[in-house]
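User: Design a sequence. Structure:
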C-alpha cells in the first residue's frame, strides 16, 4: 500500500533527467544568494547552462519549479521516515509527524531568506501528501463499515492536524524534542479513528 502512495516516476530519458537536475541545482544555488522574487528564469537558465526554451520545456515558471522541488523533497523525507510496510499502529502517524518536522526544519535552514514567501506552497504540498498517507493508513484500519466519505473527512482532519501540530512545535522554538511533542499531540490527532470505530 505504501508503494502506491510513494510512487516512483516512470523511466525518463537520462538526458532529460540531467537537464532537469541542472535546472533544479541552479535554482537551489541561486536561492542561497538571492530572494525568490529576485531570481529570474534567465538567471536559472544561465546558471544551469541551458537556454530559456529548455527551462520552459521542463517547467512553466519558477513557481512550478519551486512547487515540484517542495513536493519531491517532502516525498523523499517521507520515504526516509516510513517503512515499506504500512503499520496499523499510531507509530505510522508518529513517523508522519516527524517527517513534517524534519522537512520544515530542513527547508528553514536551507531557505531562511525566502521561507516566509513560499510557506503556503510548502503547506499545500505537505497537507496533500499527508492526506494521501493518512487515507492509506485509515484504509488498513478495521473500519470496513465506515463510509468512504467519512474516511476522507477523517483523513483531512488528521493530516491537517499533523501539519498544524508541526507548525506549533516549530513556533515554540523546539522547546521540546519533536519526539516528545509527538507523544503529547498524537492521542488528540488520532481521536477521529476511535470516533469512526464506534
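Assistant: Done.
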Amino acid at each position: 500500500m505504501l508503494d502506491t502512495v510513494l510512487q516512483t516516476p516512470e523511466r525518463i530519458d537520462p538526458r532529460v533527467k540531467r537537464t532537469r537536475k541542472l535546472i533544479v541545482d541552479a535554482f537551489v544555488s541561486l536561492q542561497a544568494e538571492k530572494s525568490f522574487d529576485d531570481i529570474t528564469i534567465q538567471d536559472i537558465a544561465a546558471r544551469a547552462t541551458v537556454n530559456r526554451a529548455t527551462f520552459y520545456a521542463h517547467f512553466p515558471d519558477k513557481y512550478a519549479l519551486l512547487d515540484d522541488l517542495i513536493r519531491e523533497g517532502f516525498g523523499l523525507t517521507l520515504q526516509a521516515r516510513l517503512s515499506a510496510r504500512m503499520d496499523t499502529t499510531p507509530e505510522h502517524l508518529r513517523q508522519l509527524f516527524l517527517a513534517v518536522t524534519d522537512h520544515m526544519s530542513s527547508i528553514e535552514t536551507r531557505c531562511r531568506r525566502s521561507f516566509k514567501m513560499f510557506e503556503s506552497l510548502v503547506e499545500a504540498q505537505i497537507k496533500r501528501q499527508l492526506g494521501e498517507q493518512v487515507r492509506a493508513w485509515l484504509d488498513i484500519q478495521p473500519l470496513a463499515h465506515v463510509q468512504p466519505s467519512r474516511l476522507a473527512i477523517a483523513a483531512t482532519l488528521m493530516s491537517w492536524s499533523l501539519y498544524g501540530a508541526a507548525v506549533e512545535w516549530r513556533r515554540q522554538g523546539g522547546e521540546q524534542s519533536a519526539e516528545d511533542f509527538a507523544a503529547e499531540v498524537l492521542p488528540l490527532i488520532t481521536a477521529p479513528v476511535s470516533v469512526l470505530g464506534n
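The longest helix spans residues 115-139. Residues 2-197 form a domain with the Tetracycline Repressor; domain 2 fold (CATH 1.10.357.10).
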